[in-house]
Amino acid sequence: MVIPNVMDFEQPPKPPDAYAMNVRANLGVADGEKLFLQPTRIIQRKGIEHAIELTRRVGIPAKLIITHASGDEGSEYEHRVREFAKLLDVEVGFEASIIQEKRGLSANGRNIFTLADIYPQADLITYPSSSEGFGNAFLEAVYYRRPIVVNNYSIYEVDIKPKGFSVIEFNGFIDEATLENVRHCLLHPEETESWADKNYLLARRYFSYSVLRRRLRPLLSDCLGEAG
Hints:
By secondary structure, the protein is α/β, with parallel strands linked by helices. It has one domain (20-227): Rossmann fold, CATH 3.40.50. It is 42% helix and 12% strand. It has nine helices and eight strands. The strands form two sheets. It has a six-stranded parallel sheet, sandwiched between helices. Strand 2, helix 3 and strand 3 form a beta-alpha-beta unit. Helix 2 runs parallel beside helix 3 (76-88). The longest helix is centred in the C-terminal third of the chain and has 19 residues, at 209-227. The protein starts with 22 loop residues before the first helix and ends with a helix.
């Protein structure tokens, strides 16, 4: 039996408060500019070059925000990402210092936000990973009802895609169809809202805590029965 990653889809996120409404200004997103969110660490399998290329080629003013640092994976790939962004003249915010588990102030006095503050302000979630254990950021984007562009990595193709989520997919590289779908998504928010509602209901059906309880119950019964 497969136990999926889950989130509390029975409890929708709270609406952004006044503090969270300052996210875009604090991240340096200008008026009239879209916020593209890359909610991952900076490691090679996350495929962040694709998000940078997308931001460059989509033809709509946008700033790409990366939420996490490279962690213990070393700095070589982060250096590559920074150089690639410069090469394509794409504005990228490396904002791990002000996106944390709790709100507060950074050492230099900047507001610290949580992912719960950031997600609702994003116009697009970029998820161009070449491989993932599952896809926590995918579920988070669905939870916060954000449109998603996702690389068709193997676990997504097998365990997530068949559920019927409405997302923008690409297969290993950004092509003109990907760009056109992203443009359509950004220019027709009423359509992406319907996608978001559909995706949330699907996630509640397949990836909620109630699903986890149903899956665990027979396993626990078997274990307790054997123990008895």
